[in-house]
Write a structure and sequence with these properties.
The complex is a heterodimer of chains A (234) and B (427). By secondary structure, chain A is an alpha/beta fold. Chain A is 35% helix and 29% strand. Chain A has 8 helices and 10 strands. In chain A, β9 and β10 form a beta hairpin. The chains are: A alpha/beta (234), B alpha+beta (427).
């Protein structure tokens, strides 16, 4: 089992006015390539902080994070941006698409940032949008798309630079049950067809159960790591 | 991210906020319009004045006046020897002396006119100094050594514009009344002299101190004889190269004791005027530039608001891998585009404005109704033509872009420095 992501005793403390809040108090775990891992816990458990650190958006105060064997603690801000661009894809609860751009342009954005030519951007983005089942909605702006469709665009955008990991923050949190289920199915399909690794942060037990493993986080510490019943269900 | 892509995205973002973008750009347009308009109009004004001064003052002519404007004009006069010494200076083509008499009255039968300036000149030398001025309406330049010939200027010969018959034509015999100094009271005594008209001059209307329209010219020796002197009042010096006129003026000054002569050098005068015009123009441009600075502050203001509004967008861009300098570039590109578009439009409207202003100014400045000694209606009409200066165009355009980028720098840096986690959390 090759670890595509590895954390070693990651700690993070915030200052809220006078009070210091220990969001993460030493988190160590590994994620293998091709896994879907859920980080499960109540709000305030440090899920989002962990996600930001894994996604190179934030730095750990202590401990190490390796993405594809790259030690994130040693990278400059620009290098971290490059890791986000090439190694990591983000899917957010509120989709976070750029409202001014069409679905296609939103998906093209990471490619443009990675200096692909206009033609390559367009070709790759179309291909990925097709993969998430949006070939007919490419030229619509986010406001013209349903929540489920917007999240598909977000997944396509996360996927388009062939990242090592896709980090999803409550990806179904803003969707109705049926649409949420479809998004979960899409992630599973991408995992099975492309071997895409997902780390899903959620407080929704149904979503967590769709994963291979569930990391239970509480008060900034790993309470337990359990194998989910997903595979055996099939 | 490629620069072209950054600009494309900036353009897209601007066109999606049309009203805001156009209002911000309008500030730059007004600034550049003011700068270009004033520059082009000022340049036109300057060239108009220079052109007039150059036609008014023959640049290759120096006028030597006895005494100094600062030490009081002296009663000392020039001698033949002075003329000789000036003629010997290198670069001097010809030096000629002139005797001035002041008011005289001329009679031709029952016709009577007055001349403001009556001068005694050496015709052969004098013509060499002012070759373009002697265009005869009638008759020609006096020949030989005749001492009773006279040349009459146009305004003397045609005292009123509507007169059909001139005062005199060539070969008329006229009487000239002069005030001659007496050793005993009443000291001034009118005396009559008879002259033959050699020729009458065409209208020239040259502005400046030597407007022959108001002159009559007589042989120098005759005037000297009347006043019983061997001296003269003025020396006109013609030089080969106007550029050398300042050096020659210094040389002439060196021939006389300090403060004994004053030399009018048209080139110096024109240079001075040009310098003053440059100062005035620079001052106007500085005022115009203030409007561009105001536009810059407008850009800073709008962009700062825009960065706040787009905080989440910036967070998203950073989350998907945009570097800080890419975000900086996007905002600076917007500022630069405002500068480019505003600058381009401003250059066009600026020239438009200068033509409109020139037209208005030209029609406001009516020619004077009365002729003066120095000016005639022909020379008074002022038409300002704006001058297109590619140099100013480039300067103004570059200035617009630079101002926009400088004022865009603060909000752009603010955007670039945003913490992605904070930015994503921003509602």
């Amino acid at each position: 089992m090759t670890a595509i992501l590895e954390t070693e005793d990651v700690k993070k403390t915030y200052r809220m006015g006078e009070v210091l809040i220990s969001a993460l108090r030493g988190v160590t775990f590994k994620v293998a390539k091709g896994e879907i891992v859920a980080v499960f816990g109540p709000s305030g458990s440090g899920k989002s902080t962990l996600l930001h650190i894994l996604g190179a958006l934030d730095r750990a105060d202590e401990g190490k994070v390796f993405v594809d064997s790259i030690d994130l603690s040693k990278l400059s801000d620009d290098e971290l941006a490059d890791v986000r661009l090439r190694k990591i894809g983000f899917v957010f609860q509120f989709f976070n698409l750029l409202p001014r751009l069409t679905a296609l342009r939103n998906v093209e954005l990471p490619l443009a940032l990675a200096d692909f030519s206009d033609k390559e951007c367009s070709e790759k983005a179309r291909e990925v949008l097709k993969l998430v089942g949006l070939e007919g909605r490419m030229n619509h702006r986010p406001t013209e798309l349903s929540g489920g469709e917007q999240q598909r665009v977000a997944i396509a955008r996360a996927l388009v630079n062939d990242p090592s990991i896709i980090l999803a923050d409550e990806p179904t949190g803003n969707l109705d049950t049926k649409t949420g289920f479809e998004i979960v199915q899409l992630m599973k399909r991408l995992n099975e067809e492309k071997g895409q690794t997902f780390i899903v942060v959620t407080h929704d037990p149904h979503l967590a159960e769709a994963a291979d493993r569930i990391i239970h986080l509480k008060d900034g510490l790993i309470e337990a790591i359990k194998k989910a019943p997903r595979r055996s269900n099939q | 991210m490629k620069l072209s892509k950054i600009f494309a995205m900036a353009w897209e973002s601007m066109t999606q906020r049309r009203l805001r973008t156009s209002l911000t750009t309008l500030g730059v347009v007004i600034g550049i319009t003011a700068i270009i308009g004033l520059a082009s109009l000022g340049e036109g004004f300057r060239s108009q004045i220079k052109e007039r001064m150059q036609t008014g003052f023959e640049l290759d002519n120096l006028t030597v006046i006895p005494g100094s404007l600062f030490a009081g004009l002296s009663r000392e006069r020039f001698t033949d020897e002075d003329i000789q010494r000036i003629s010997n200076i290198s670069g001097v083509k010809v030096a000629t002396q002139v005797m001035q008499i002041g008011n005289v009255t001329l009679y031709n039968g029952n016709k009577k006119v007055r001349a403001f300036v009556a001068t005694g000149v050496n015709f052969t030398e004098f013509v060499k100094v002012f070759p373009d001025r002697f265009i005869f309406e009638n008759g020609k330049l006096p020949e030989g050594d005749r001492n009773d010939t006279i040349v009459i200027g146009y305004k003397v010969n045609h005292p009123t514009e509507n007169e059909t018959t001139p005062f005199a034509v060539a070969n008329d015999t006229i009487t000239l009344t002069l005030e001659v100094l007496q050793p005993s009271p009443p000291f001034h005594k009118p005396k009559n002299y008879t002259f033959t008209v050699a020729g009458t001059l065409q209208k020239r209307g040259t502005p400046g101190i030597t407007n022959f329209d108001y002159w009559i010219l007589m042989p120098l020796e005759t005037v000297r004889e009347i006043y019983k002197t061997q001296e003269s009042d003025l020396i006109f010096v013609k030089v080969y190269d106007p550029e050398e006129s300042e050096r020659i003026a210094k040389d002439i000054e060196g021939l006389f004791p300090p403060f004994k002569v004053t030399i009018l050098v048209p080139l110096t005068l024109i240079r001075q005027v040009d310098r003053i015009l440059t100062i005035v123009q620079t001052f106007l441009m500085a005022i115009a530039s203030i409007s561009l600075l105001v536009a810059g502050i407008g850009i800073m203001n709008i962009m700062t608001v825009s960065v706040m509004e787009r905080t989440r967008e910036i967070g998203i861009l950073k989350a998907i891998g945009a570097k800080s300098r890419t975000v900086l570039g996007m905002f600076l590109a917007e500022a630069a585009l405002i500068g480019i578009v505003g600058g381009l439009i401003g250059v066009f409207t600026g020239y438009g404005l200068s033509y409109a202003l020139a037209f208005m100014l030209s029609s406001f400045i009516q020619p004077q109704q009365h002729d003066t000694v120095f000016q005639t209606p022909e020379t008074q009409r002022l038409t300002i033509k704006p001058v297109f200066s590619s140099q100013w165009t480039i300067i103004a355009f570059t200035f617009a872009i630079i101002v926009c980028i400088i004022f865009g720098l603060y909000p752009a840096r603010k955007a670039a420095k945003l913490d992605p986690v904070e930015a994503l959390r921003y509602e």
